[in-house]
Amino acid sequence: MQWYAVFVVTGKERIAAEEIEKKLICSQNHIQYQLTLFQLVVFERFSGGRTVKREKIMFPGYLFVGTDDIEKLYRLVLGSKNIIKFLRTDNYFTPVSE
User: How does 10-28 read in b/e, with b if 16+ C-beta sit within 10 Å?
Assistant: First the structure.
């Protein structure tokens, strides 16, 4: 399985991930995949006299999807509202190096 970067609307990463999963579940295509928002970073901030914990996505505006059939996955989720594009080099999907 190789990993690919998907450019999504910043701030809508979770919604975009849900859109991809819904389309995959509803389709009759049995595409094996893994989906991640990558890592959430937790930090503390002092606000209004108290400490507040916040979470931020490490790579805002991106999802990372692992699959063996990126072409089929791309065609399936093409046109989803919060997905801008799958990152590619020329016309080829380029896996993210580890």
Answer: eeebeebbebbeebbeeee
62, 6 Cβ separation under 8 angstroms: yes
Residue that has been written with the tokens 């389709």 in this structure? 27
Give the Cα separation of 35 and 38 in Å (integer).
9
Q: What is the SS3 assignment for 98?
A: coil
80-94 per-position pLDDT tens digit: 889 999 999 888 898
**Structure-derived torsion over alpha carbons of residues 4, 8, 13, 15, reported in degrees to the nearest 10:** -110
pLDDT above 80 (res 27): no
Distance CA 73, CA 67 (A): 8
CA contacts within 13 A on the Cβ side of 92: 4
Are 19 and 73 in contact by the 8 Å Cβ rule? The answer is no
CA atoms of 3 and 36, how far apart (whole Å): 10
